[in-house]
Amino acid sequence: MSQVKIKVGPRTYSIACGPGDEEKVEAFGKLIDENYAKLGTARAPQEADNLVFAALFMADELDEAKEKAANAKGELAELRIELQRARDDAANALKKAASDNENDKERSGSAKAEMRAQIATLRKAEERARKENLALKARVAEFEEREKHQHDLFGGPAEDAAHSAALAEKLEALAARAEATANALEGQSTTH
Fold it and tell me: Are 76 and 22 part of one and the same domain?
């Protein structure tokens, strides 16, 4: 066991902790001291009362962090639904292209060559979508990992909103590309 000295208000406390936890205990001590300082001149005569008030400040911050984590969890669920829709749209566009290709096999050689070019384009788009999907999965995993550690007051729930917004933008762009590709294919199939 290691011993760490932390200062809270006018007193210094010696805290026992496991090896490797010294920095964490020191950081917690600073956090408690900061909340203790919020009492200002309104300190109670009993030091234990002051520590309770400091703990109440921290409990309030923890409650806010939990609420932000719950909101982030809801946003994450919505992003997963959007991601699944984008996957479905891409899969449907690819199936439609393959089906159109089969129908066009009976037509002229130039139509076949054109459809092959469209399929190649779709495959490239699908590959890009897969890469983006992998990147999005990594971001989702990052959100899930952050969600596991929301009890840590040093985390950044505010960062989660920015990451969620960026993820949502990427999903919207992916869905727009899939829809544009599907529309282009529909336009091509009606002209042949």
Answer: no
Domain extent at residue 91: 63-191
Q: Residue type for 63, please?
A: D
Burial of 117 (0-12, 13-18, 19+ CB in 10 A): exposed
**Are 69 and 38 in a shared domain?**
no
Q: What does the DSSP 8-state code read for residue 152?
A: -
**Quick one: which H or E segment has residue 6?**
strand 2-8
Instruction: State the amino acid at position 106 in one-letter form.
Output: E
CA distance 192 to 185: 11
Whether 36 and 90 share a structural domain? no
Helices 47-104 and 22-37, packing angle to 10 deg: 110
Residues whose CB falls within 8 Å of the CB of residue 75, separated by 6 or more in sequence, listed in order: 160, 161, 164
Q: Using the 8-state DSSP alphabet, how is residue 44 labeled?
A: -
pLDDT digits (tens, 9 = 90+) for 131-158: 888 888 888 888 777 777 655 444 455 5
Are both 33 and 124 inside the same structural domain?
no
pTM given for the model: 0.34
Backbone region of residue 173 per phi and psi (left: phi > 0; alpha: psi in -120 to 50; beta: other values)? alpha
Please say whether the beta carbons of 69 and 161 come within 8 A.
no
User: Hey, what amino acid is at 166?
Assistant: A
Report the domain count for the chain. Answer: 2
